[in-house]
Specification:
The model is unreliable at 1-15 and 233-238 (pLDDT under 50). This protein folds into five domains: 3-204, Beta Polymerase, domain 2; 206-368, Four Helix Bundle (Hemerythrin (Met), subunit A); 370-503, no CATH class; 505-695, Beta Polymerase, domain 2 (2-Layer Sandwich); 697-854, Nucleotidyltransferases  domain 2 (Four Helix Bundle (Hemerythrin (Met), subunit A)), CATH 1.20.120.330. Helix content is 61%, strand content 5%. Helix 28 links the parallel strand 7 and strand 8 (635-636). The protein is built from 38 helices and ten strands. By secondary structure, the chain is mainly alpha-helical.
Length: 854
């Protein structure tokens, strides 16, 4: 017989393994006979017996967890009774001890509760327990004890009353703390009092109205766990050798199960078990998990926990990483029942089996929450998710109109045609990717509309089947709001850009845009030739938006790109006319358009004024007319002399006469942004050059400052729409875009004659020049930059959400929430957005007010 066999027989003969309840008597005898040292030794002997029978195949995982948890319960109980705490301290076990699934090297997670009038006594006994059972000694450490799951963690009191626990959980607890309470169990000491804590927190844990934010926070906590594992792994990748935290590991199973328990436990008390394997069975019985998935998860979980036990038993250490060297892997493999064979070693066979389990868990984790909804609506499986449960899941994913979402899902996945089959494959992942977007409802509906628009060309979506990053990007695009979903249904060929792993690419040069814009007109019937231009604009807008959502372009680059697209459209529509030119003004002139911007232009001509007027009218129709193919741009020619009362086009001499004789100072200021954009470049540039002496005078007249300041005050007072809080207006509110623009433009007008670089039509470019010439400090300039870029981004995201211009921060909570998510806020999107908005506006107002009025 081998030495290992003799050692195992000696352990087994030393003490029969009692029923779990029998540990109490054995440990009482040990404590009374030899004190705390003997209790520690007795615990270690019992652990050795369990381990021996486990390795011999005489106990399965459930029995091992039950016995190890019973050992812990009994040790706690006899210690409390021996030290006068049996009726004084109620012990609530959490984590694996709470679930009755302790492993060999687990911490035991505890919380202590005491009667109202005996808290101080209970603290003394609790502290003694931590010292004697949790401290080091010659006999070893009985248990590693973790009290950090108690309210306030290490900063919280060691012992609380029942009312103290309830007050904390009702008022201050975070979602993860409720998730932890799923495993709460009255474990030792004053069991009735401990059980009251468990019972009276159950309605808080399993709340019927669990919020989407709560579910999101659970997912984010899971992501943080994975990020930690990635940082711990080599080269930033989560290690497949980490059986607990790695992809496909124990945490994947536990988070999946607990998420479903939180979702459905409010309406179904039968799915609330603290034990993971029991909870899986309950979720299968309730129809929340398909039988095949439940069986697969159970098998996988048993495997992973057994591997964890084998890793920990070698030196009784709290480790979760499978060793990488052949010798250690071979030892674990043999303890798992693998043997060497001519075809492969035990280690190789174990590694292959372990990889299969990890992949299986990861796959089930990805689909578990989402696929049952699709299968229920498509009648694709024998197990159907109850209707209430399906709607609850949609609600918790962030869908607000669950009735519409259900109808949309049904339309996506029902039927037997090729498209429906493809959507049944894509939709579970799409639901998961849509969940964290600003508008999952709209995203799901746009996904349906996209499928309808593709008709027989569903292969374009099929390319995303094995391309999760591409599908996730599509979800971000569609979940951003109405606008991009509508655009994509008209230009579905842009799906190829979304699916491309190289990303949407960089901004095109103006010359390339001009070439493509002109080409869009060439092959169409004369009556419909401008439809090609509108389609070109829509396609380029989609590319710009994709670049912005992918993080490849910032808001300043987006403004320049959109402005170049507008210039290309105007130039193509003008079709190379001589003696006629177009000057960009406003945001077009400054190359800082947003998706909702009008394009402000001036027409200038040589020769016949009547011919020029007709050209201008034709171009306005070509660019601004709304047709079934959409609209290229909304065109605004109101900045021309005399506004709408004046002619559309003027000669160079007429412009100069007007500006010199009758032009107001605000009209001169508007010319800061004048820039040639189309037509005869020399003519447009001549107008810009000839007005520079008016825009940047040797000395800015006092009445000019007074007029501009008066205009600014009137805009704030009169142009904010009725019913809109001025403080929430992005453009005209205090510290808004207009504040930044006016402040920079006054610097330009005052000092532009001295510094040529200050004459730039772009606000941020001019601000940079002002800093270089010490006209404004870097800190003050940064506050203006922050406001300008943040508010321009807000306008873009609001346009994505609503597909129409919105110039005020929303007041409805759900709209603020969506906008906060769109702006990248994650923890408390609504609150973070409002706080950032107010801070940015306040700081910009202080700087701008000083520059405008000092």
């Amino acid at each position: 017989m081998s030495q290992d066999h003799h050692a195992r027989e000696a352990i087994l003969s030393r003490a029969d393994l009692p029923d779990p309840a029998g540990y109490l008597e054995a440990f009482q005898a040990a404590l009374e006979g030899g004190g705390i040292g003997e209790l520690r030794l007795a615990k270690r002997r019992r652990l050795a017996v369990v381990a021996a029978r486990d390795l011999a195949g005489e106990m399965d995982l459930v029995e091992v967890g039950t016995h190890l948890s019973a050992v812990a319960d009994a040790c706690l109980q006899v210690f409390l009774e021996h030290n006068g705490g049996g009726e004084l301290v109620g012990v609530i076990s959490m984590g694996k001890l709470g679930g009755g699934e302790l492993n060999y090297s687990s911490d035991i997670d505890l919380m202590f509760v005491a009667p109202d009038d005996r808290v101080d006594e209970a603290k003394r006994v609790g502290a003694l327990l931590l010292q004697e059972l949790g401290g080091s000694s010659p006999e070893g450490q009985a248990f590693r004890i973790d009290m950090n799951l108690r309210p306030e963690g290490r900063n919280g009191p060691l012992v609380r009353t029942l009312d103290g626990y309830l007050e904390y959980y009702r008022r201050w607890a975070e979602t993860w703390e409720f998730q932890a309470l799923i495993k709460a169990r009255a474990s030792a000491g004053a069991l009735a009092l401990a059980q009251r804590v468990v019972d009276e927190t159950r309605p808080l844990v399993f709340d019927r109205a669990t919020s989407p934010e709560g579910i999101t926070s659970i997912r984010k906590m899971k992501e943080r766990v994975e990020e930690h594992a990635m940082r711990s792994g080599r080269k930033g990748k989560a290690s497949n050798r980490d059986v607990k935290l790695g992809p496909g590991g124990i945490r994947d199973v536990e988070f999946s199960v607990q998420l479903l328990q939180l979702v459905h436990g409010g309406s179904d008390p039968d799915v609330r078990s603290a034990n993971t394997l029991e909870a899986i069975d309950q979720l299968v019985d309730g129809g929340y998990i398909a039988e095949e998935d439940g069986a697969g998860l159970s098998v996988d979980y048993r495997w992973l926990r057994n591997v964890e036990h084998r890793v920990q038993l070698w030196q009784e250490r709290q480790v979760h990483v499978v060793p990488a060297d052949e010798e250690h892997i071979g030892r674990i493999a043999r303890s798992m029942g693998f043997r060497n064979s001519p075809a492969a070693s035990a280690a190789a066979r174990f590694e292959e089996a372990h990889r299969r389990v990890l992949a299986d868990v990861r796959g089930r984790f990805e689909k578990l929450f989402y696929r049952p909804m699709v299968e229920s609506l498509a009648d694709a499986g024998t197990s159907k998710l109850p209707e209430d449960a399906l709607k609850e899941r949609l609600h918790l994913l962030g869908f607000r109109d669950v009735e519409r979402a259900t109808r949309t899902l049904t339309s996506l996945v029902s039927g037997r045609d090729r498209r429906a089959k493809l959507f049944r494959v894509l939709t579970p992942a799409m639901l998961r990717f849509l969940a964290p977007t600003p508008q999952p409802d709209q995203g799901l509906f746009s996904f349906l509309r996209l499928g309808e628009a593709l008709e027989g060309r569903v292969d374009a979506l099929g390319a995303l089947r094995d391309n999760p990053p591409g599908l996730e990007f599509l979800a971000r695009v569609l979940g951003s709001g109405r606008f991009l979903g509508e655009v994509l249904t008209h230009v579905p060929e842009e799906l190829a850009v979304i699916a491309d792993p190289r990303g949407p690419g960089e901004a095109k040069e103006l010359e390339q845009l001009l070439k493509e814009a002109r080409a869009s007109l060439g092959w169409r019937d004369p009556e419909a030739r401008f439809d090609g231009l509108r389609r070109f604009k829509r396609r380029e807008t989609m590319k710009i938006a994709l670049s912005e959502l992918a993080g490849s372009s910032d808001v300043i680059e987006v403004g320049a790109w959109l402005s170049d697209v507008a210039s290309a459209c105007i130039d193509a529509a003008l079709d190379g006319s001589d003696d006629f030119a177009i000057v960009g003004m406003g945001k077009l002139g400054g190359r800082e358009l947003n998706y909702a911007s009008d394009v402000d232009i001036l027409f200038v001509h040589r020769g016949d004024a009547t011919v020029a007027e007709k050209k201008a009218e034709t171009l306005l129709r070509a660019i601004g007319e709304v047709t079934p193919e959409g609209q290229a741009f909304r065109v605004d020619a109101a900045l021309r002399p005399e506004g709408k009362a004046g002619p559309l086009s003027r000669s160079l001499e007429s412009y100069l006469e007007y500006y010199r004789r009758w032009g107001d100072h605000w009209e001169h200021q508007a010319l800061i942004k004048a820039r040639p954009v189309a037509g005869e470049g020399d003519l447009a540039q001549a107008l810009v050059d000839a007005t520079r002496e008016l825009v940047f005078p040797d000395r800015l007249p006092v009445d000019a400052l007074a007029q501009v300041r008066h205009l600014k005050a009137r805009m704030e007072k009169e142009r904010v729409p009725k019913g809109t809080d001025p403080k929430r207006h992005l453009k005209l509110g205090p510290g808004g875009i207009a504040d930044v623009e006016f402040a920079v433009q006054l610097l330009q007008r005052k000092h532009g004659v001295q510094y040529v670089s200050l004459r730039a039509p772009g606000t941020m470019e001019a601000l940079g020049a002002a800093v270089r010439h010490d006209l404004v400090g870097e800190e003050e300039a940064q506050r203006l930059r922050d406001a300008f870029t943040f508010l321009m981004s807000l306008r873009n995201r609001l346009f994505f959400l609503h597909a129409k211009p919105v110039d005020a921060l929303p007041t409805k909570p759900e709209e603020l929430e969506a906008l906060g998510i769109a702006m990248g806020f994650t923890r408390q999107p609504r609150q973070e957005l409002e706080e950032t908005f107010l801070r940015v506006m306040r700081r910009a107002r202080t700087v701008a007010h000083g520059l405008i009025y000092d």
